[in-house]
UniProtKB/TrEMBL annotation, chain B:
It is a multi-pass membrane protein. This is Heme-copper oxidase subunit III. Gene3D superfamilies: Cytochrome c oxidase, subunit III, four-helix bundle (1.20.120.80). It comes from the Bacteria. It holds the Pfam family COX3. PROSITE patterns: COX3. The chain crosses the membrane at residues 21-43, 55-71, 91-111, 123-147, 168-187. One of its GO terms (biological process) is aerobic electron transport chain. It comes from Candidatus Desulfolinea nitratireducens. Keywords: Cell membrane, Membrane, Transmembrane, Transmembrane helix.
UniProtKB/TrEMBL annotation, chain C:
This is Cytochrome c oxidase subunit 2. It comes from Candidatus Desulfolinea nitratireducens. Residues 239-335 form the Cytochrome c domain. PANTHER family: CYTOCHROME C OXIDASE SUBUNIT 2, CYTOCHROME C OXIDASE, SUBUNIT II. Binds a copper A center. Belongs to the cytochrome c oxidase subunit 2 family. GO terms for molecular function: copper ion binding; cytochrome-c oxidase activity; heme binding; oxidoreductase activity. Pfam families: COX2 (PF00116), COX2_TM (PF02790), Cytochrom_C (PF00034).
Amino acid sequence: MDEKKKVNFLKLGLVRGIIFQVVGSIVGMGIVMLIRLLMGLPAWNAEPVWVGGTFVGVITFLIGVGAFSDWFKWAKGEKTSDHHEADPSLPGWAKYYSISLDHKVIGIQYGVTSILTLGLAGTFAMIFRTELAASKLQYIDLGTFNSLIGLHGIVMIAAILLGIGAMSNYLVPLMIGASDMAFPRLNAFAYWINVPGALLVVSSLFLGGFDTGWTAYPPLSARAPLGMQMFFLGVYVIGLSSILGSLNIIVTTIRMRAPGMNYFRMPIFVWAAVATSIIGLTATQFIALSFQMVMFQRLLGMGFFDPTNGGNVVLFQHLFWFYSHPAVYVFILPGLGMISELLPVFARKPLFGYKWIALSSMAIALVGFFVWAHHMFTAGMEEYLRVPFMYSTMLVAVPTGVKFFSWVGTLWRGKISFPTPMLFTLGAVSIFLLGGLTGPPNATVATDLHLHDTYWIVGHFHATMFGGFIFPFFAALYYWFPKMTGRMYNEKLGKWHFWLMYPAFYVQSLGQMRIGLLGMRRRIADYDPALNFDFSHLLITIAGFVIFASVVIFLVNVWMSVKRGEKAGTNPWNSRSPEWQLPTPIPEHNYADHPFEVVGEPYDYGLEGSTYIKMSAASKASAAD
Amino acid sequence: MATSTLDNRTSYKYKLGTNRLGLWLFLLSDAFFFAGLLISRFYLMGFTRPHLDQTLGLIVTSVLLISSFYMNRAETAMAHGDQKTFLRGTLITLVLGVIFLVGVVGVEWQLAPFGPGDGAHGALFYMMTGMHAFHVLTGVIFLVIVYRNGRKELYTAEKHWGVEACATYWHFIDVVWIFYYPALYLIGTVVG
Amino acid sequence: MKHFFRVAVLVAILTVLIGFGLDNSGYMPALASVQGAAIDALFRKHIWVISFLFSLISGFMLYSFVAFRRKPGEEGDGDHFEGHTGLEIAWTILPLGIVLYFAFLGAAALAETRRADPNAHKVTVVGSQWSWRFDYEDYGFSSTELRLPIDQQSLLTMTSTDVIHSFWVPEFRLKQDALPGEGMERELRITPTVIGDYKLRCAELCGLEHAYMVSDVIVMEVSDFEKWVAEQTEGPSDDPIERGELWYEQYGCQACHSIDGSDRIGPTWAGIFGTEELLTDGTTIVVDREYLIESIVDPQAAIVEGFETIVMPPTGDSMTEEQIHDIVDFIESLAE
Ligand code: HEA
Ligand code: HEA
Ligand code: CUA
Ligand SMILES: [Cu+2]
């Protein structure tokens, strides 16, 4: 990166995209105003003008980035080349800022975006946690607080979706022996559409915010300030990315596997990615629909959820949770897959009960479709739905339990070592266990009458999301760091990261659960000092800051190691997975010059002389086994 | 993609299979959106329906069904290398698609005695027909592209994925309407 | 085998420590209702199962970390075994049994909270941004605090005038959302068991002042309750101004309008009568009776400059004409 090549910034896709987006939004606003004039309405009405304008802006962003270029050519009947990089005249790093069709580049783009959004959402959390450290209002006003918690929630969720995109885009083709995704252009499109989407979501903060939390229940969301529309539009766009990304993963897995790689010989993460994608492909349409209906209620007075105009507020919650419950399994399945992937490597043992773990992912995904109404036990939905939904919800514990017990079986009689990725994996198991076990009390309706909308729930879902995503994500980042960068991360800083984050998380989550049971409601900026929660809240805030600091350590580690880390070998963890048999850096077309055939089981650690894949003789030479 | 021992992977035929799977998954996903609207319709309106012009409804429905027939003809013709029938079929489908759009958006929307802001039936009617019409519109654009490329003789009996995709999409839109038409025009007693 | 024995001991110790630790940590607020007892009993079972399962898995893992760690200089891999179908089936069936049993308990506890007493006395709970009103329809009066007689079942019917709110008194354990719209009334049955003062806290995010949407809940001796009811049913005072002040509190106006000139969400009422006000459409208006009535009946008709972003709820719809006149009299009395 020392080569001081002069870069024309206007050639970077990202820069062009943002310029296009700004210009496009303004032009779009103009068009909406013109149409309004033609219809005999006053030109300026903030809401339709902003919504129409920014929608146009999203499309122009994609045009600016170049996401449509090849498709336009196809429409015109022209052929396109299978190029990977946008502009060969740009230096190496620039490909990450422009459109690229290489799934590894897209994976890293997803990853970096995920960490940025994680940082942003974490920063929001630090701001409102500071406010909550003591009772009474100190630093921010009620409106800002409400917007911040909602944004914290939704931006974190975006960070998770992006992080999952990172893992599955980078890993799935590598693990199944494909040279790229089935639809590389669609893949690039699905990544880039997140950028204008995220910009829209965050822009809501400057357009009056929104005071509904991430769940956006009407009728409150139908009356919220303009920021609400930006939230809806942004999430809508990010949802489109989920749908297209999921489609790509499923098709890739079905069509692009290497010879001999039958479904039960795929690395286990692929199963998790596919189970996730089934949810992402289908259920996501429902959140899009529910948000679209509120948007139109606001724009045209359509009465879907307006009780004074024939609507019903409970319908929204059904539509919303039909996506948003399965979505929580989207958040964790890749993470649980990651745990299953890493435990055998560091315990040097086969994955215990491969088939059971693989099928339990599917079971969780499928049962997950039939439990949504457990978020609505107190919501005044149809009475007769409460008990059936309790039963279905409780069922999810069974396949999840299969995973836990199988993980224990994997560790048992292994030869366990504890480098940073393993620490994060084990931390994930422990924390997800806490999160999972606090699920059933919410599911048995009667107890939920007390627990609903309290900090107990907040504790529950932070534990599931940290255990199911944050910890496995960091495990994955540390684990594949040597493959992605060719260098080793700093082990000492990695350990610091873990040993700060793990205990701090327990303090934060258990603290939330405790005050929740005692009567702390969710989504309040100020609590009654008579409840004596001040001290617990202070502890939670401090724990939050420790987590924040630990992530800073991670960033420092990455920054230093990318530049100066020790050079890593091709397979530092001695893993059997195909991607580790490739040279580092991984060639642009993965296995194009290193074709392999699957001849054995993926996790036969400890079995003398077993092999998983057989690379053709020519390629063996370049990759150390 | 680049060469590998998996030569068949780079063949047109294999890619065609991949593309087909992708398209069908996309339609599955889209079907969830339409299904959600249909469920909302029954949730909010139960067995009542908006007051609509029955003749017009019947006409646009027939137009759409007939268009699917021509679409199918066009595609089969292409598979047999019959360029002429293919082009004619595509053009007729396109015209019928436009007629459908005009019928729903241009006529029915103007005739309806209620607006989008009038109660649940207004909201649902405009949202359901609107989303469907939006899909018809994208289908029409797709047809224009296929027609134009067909005139340039870019499709052959062996290689005409573009035509096939367009036809599948068009039939999908048709099937959606087969559910929406009774839901809006036939089922239940009239209100509003 | 010795491994399993040691782990079993470890798990047992952990379970007992965690379970008893939690059980004695006072994790719930004091209990004050019959319905809550069923919930607490079920929750306590949950706590024990959580303690056991957490200890089980953590115990096995902790033990593995010590017993099966890679010792310095050690080479090679762990034992090779790929799974055990019998075990897998066992740990599918057993949890399945447990969760079904818990679901059954959950249904039973739910039924317990809904057991109806035909003599329950009725209160309608009305949530509005950001205050509660309690209509004692059987007696024909309304109140801003919820008073309940001890050991008698009260049937609370929830409704809302604007957005979704949620009724929650932690000591009663029960929660129910109050939904806007006709036919959306929802019920909750509460039989308080302990005399005392509690707080009803709105548990569903309902906008800006959600945190402060709190009302007093007072559980009283039956005789005291009856005395209070008698006081209330004497009817409000003859003085329209006093009545206006009462409506001001009961209909939740005080959530947004101050009467001492201080800032709240809406314009203060102190001294506005007779003054000239700037509206958002640029015109000015004299605050007289007619304008005030219009402001209450149709809040969107004229919006005061500086208050564009907040919508005043159409609470006026649920008031009688007389009540509105009382309020206007009250506002007039604040003119000085
Ligand atoms: C990552 C996400 C994630 C995951 C994995 C889960 C997992 C589960 N969740 Fe959670 N949940 C959320 C994220 C998640 N949740 C979020 C974000 C919310 C709040 C949304 C909002 O309102 O903002 C929420 C809210 C929520 C509610 C609504 C609460 C309310 O608002 O009133 C309920 C109710 O049933 C619930 C239940 C469960 C259950 C039963 C599981 C189960 O899947 C857990 C299964 C796992 C185990 C049980 C542990 C391991 C199993 C064993 C060791 C086997 C043996 C076990 C037994 C015999 C019990 N969750
Ligand atoms: C992945 C999901 C995720 C994660 C990781 C977190 C992390 C945290 N959450 Fe979050 N939270 C949610 C998802 C998540 N949350 C959701 C969905 C809600 C519900 C919202 C709603 O009710 O609508 C919620 C709500 C919520 C509440 C309840 C608010 C309320 O109801 O009033 C609280 C309160 O304590 C809280 C606290 C925290 C804290 C202290 C952290 C800390 O762990 C954060 C630590 C900080 C970081 C992880 C960032 C570190 C990054 C850097 C240091 C990088 C530097 C900068 C750049 C790169 C730009 N969260
Ligand atoms: Cu009312 Cu919160
Ligand atoms: Cu859920």
